[in-house]
Specification:
mainly alpha, 6 helices, about 75% helix
Length: about 180
């Protein structure tokens, strides 16, 4: 059973990284006003929300399987309180930091109607901090000897870098035009 939990934890962690990469890319595209006739802006924003929920589901399974698996002795509190784990404290601590940042984004998104847009947006920017912390967590947790993990993380990094570069370029063009 322990080996099945290990595979489930690693697999859902990798799928979470892919999905959260898509969330970040869609968020950048939405904020940049990316749209076409086939994909209006509201569709991109809706996809961003739905992929976020799917990613969150995989993340919950990732955390649950990692804590249920008794091999590493990861406690539930280790998922929320950074750097307290006896097992790979830096890697798991970064995972907890990423999860805490994500919780702030999720909770403020749930009460968005009761917050000012400015306050919500300020907290929502934590998503940009969450993603690289989660990426480093995944790299440090110990699967760097697996080529497909390194390739997957590289693809995720390139996708986010391309989206951010597109958004920066768009903003520079807007400033020149203004």
């Amino acid at each position: 059973m322990t080996q099945a939990l290990w595979f489930a934890s690693r697999g859902t962690g990798l799928v979470s990284m892919l999905l959260f990469t898509a969330v970040v890319v869609l968020g950048v595209l939405t904020r940049g006003g990316a749209a076409s006739r086939r994909w209006p802006r509201f569709a991109v924003a809706g996809l961003h929300r739905y992929v976020s929920l799917l990613a969150l589901g995989f993340l919950v399974v990732h955390i649950a399987t990692a804590t249920i698996d008794d091999y590493a002795g990861i406690r539930w509190v280790d998922a929320v309180v950074p750097f307290g784990s006896a097992y790979r404290p830096v890697a798991l601590g970064l995972g907890a930091v990423a999860f805490d940042l994500l919780l702030a984004v999720i909770l403020t998104s749930l009460v968005r109607a009761r917050m000012s847009y400015r306050a919500w947006r300020a907290v929502h920017w934590l998503g940009y901090a969450f993603w690289p912390v989660a990426l480093v967590h995944g790299l440090l947790v110990g699967d760097l000897d697996l080529v497909y993990v390194v390739v997957l993380d590289g693809v995720c990094l390139l996708a986010v870098a391309a989206a951010v570069a597109w958004r920066v370029d768009l903003r520079q063009k807007e400033e020149v035009a203004a």
